[in-house]
Design a protein that fits this description.
Layout: E1 6-8, E2 11-13, E3 17-19, H1 28-36, E4 42-47, E5 60-63, E6 66-69, H2 78-91, E7 96-100, H3 105-116, E8 122-125, H4 142-155, E9 160-164, H5 170-181, E10 187-190, E11 194-198, E12 200-201, E13 206-207, E14 215-220, H6 224-238, E15 243-247, H7 253-262, E16 266-269, H8 271-276, H9 279-295
Parallel strand pairs: 3-16, 4-7, 7-8, 8-9, 9-10, 10-15, 15-16
Antiparallel strand pairs: 1-2, 5-6, 6-14, 11-14, 12-13
Helix pairs in contact: 3-4, 4-5, 5-6, 6-7, 7-9
The protein binds succinic acid.
GO molecular function: dihydroorotate dehydrogenase (fumarate) activity
Binding site for substrate: 45, 69-73, 126, 192-193
InterPro entries: Aldolase_TIM, DHO_dehydrogenase, DHOD_1A, Dihydro_DH_chainA_dom2, Dihydroorotate_DH_1, Dihydroorotate_DH_1_2, Dihydroorotate_DH_cat, Dihydroorotate_DH_CS
Length: 311
């Protein structure tokens, strides 16, 4: 028997594969579709204080090996997700994960406080969205990250983690890890989409999406290697004290296996869920189990983080 269960922030998950916040998780109907799938948790859309329409359409496009989006955080406002968490918790036996992306420090505090009285199992703080027009990617501003994490740590009574934008420079990995280690952060999720890509249709000579002159976050297979490097580096820097969740280009059991080998305790599926539908969760889980059987690994800790070196 192969066991692919895991824990994130000490919360038990029956499998290490669940949905990423973002794709098709805005409405209760969408969340119930995830609840009925093999996703081991139900992650809700990043929410803000007020409901948001998001950016003008078209704002998402499938690409051959992934996606580009500049959704702009369309969501129903945090009160809806507090209520959805109660309904989902009653109806389904699965952890429910809130994702919070307040526009200001005060908004974030209010939203975190509201979820304290909800049944969500843990919270993913998302200061890494590249798509909010007029706002920088907060995860690249270490002083602002520090200020936000300090405030959120005070306000939040639930276990929480941070979804990070991708980092590309050794110095930045170390700087952000230093800030995170100051606070009771239980996990990091690596990575949000690679911000501000531009996809051009040569036929129409136009960008594929409308917001920001066509610039949006790139997801899917294009970002897998950057995501793996981020998982690996944070796994090493946190030394097992903070869980790492991997996300970016996971379409198969092999992808999930590689992320766990790099140090991930769980993986999330984003673009592939939109493109392949809810069967993707069972597919990735079954393929991962088959790889483990062949390699004679019985549980994730048999190989998690144990990436070998080239001698
Ligand atoms: C969006 O709604 O723009 C995507 C959210 C994110 O990139 O974090």
């Amino acid at each position: 028997m192969v066991d692919i269960s895991t824990t994130i922030a000490s919360v038990k998950l029956d499998s290490c594969v669940f949905n990423a916040s973002g794709p098709a998780d805005v409405t209760l109907a969408e969340l119930e579709k995830i609840a009925r799938s093999k996703s081991s948790a139900i992650t809700m859309k990043s929410c803000t204080l007020e409901a948001r329409e998001g950016n003008p359409e078209p704002r998402y496009a499938d690409l051959i090996d992934g996606s580009i989006n500049s959704m702009g955080l369309p969501n129903l406002g945090y009160k809806a997700y507090v209520e959805f968490s109660q309904l989902l918790n009653k109806k389904y036996k699965k952890p429910v994960v809130a994702s919070i992306s307040g526009m200001t420090l005060e908004d974030n505090i209010r939203i975190f406080e509201a979820f304290n009285d909800s049944p969500v199992d843990f919270i993913e703080f998302n200061p890494g969205s590249p798509n909010t027009i007029g706002k920088p990617i907060v995860g690249y501003d270490m002083q602002l990250m520090d200020k936000l994490l300090k405030a959120v740590s005070k306000a939040c009574k639930k276990p929480f983690g941070v979804k990070l934008p991708p980092y590309f420079d050794v110095v930045h990995f170390e700087e952000v890890a230093k800030v995170i280690k100051k606070y009771p952060v239980k996990f990091v999720t690596c990575i949000n989409s690679i911000g501000n890509g531009l996809v051009i249709d040569p036929k129409t000579e136009k960008p594929l999406i409308k917001p920001k002159g066509g610039m949006g976050g790139i997801g899917g297979k294009y970002i897998k290697y950057t995501a793996l490097a981020n998982v690996r580096r944070f796994y090493e820097l946190f030394n097992g004290k903070i869980d790492v969740i991997g996300v970016g280009g996971i379409y198969s059991g092999v992808d999930a296996f590689e992320f766990i080998l790099a140090g991930a305790s769980a993986v999330q599926i984003g673009t592939a869920y939109l493109q392949k539908g809810p069967t993707i969760f069972a597919k990735v889980q079954n393929e991962l189990k088959n790889i483990m059987k062949k390699k004679n690994y019985k549980k994730l800790s048999d190989f998690r983080g144990k990436l070998k070196t080239l001698d």
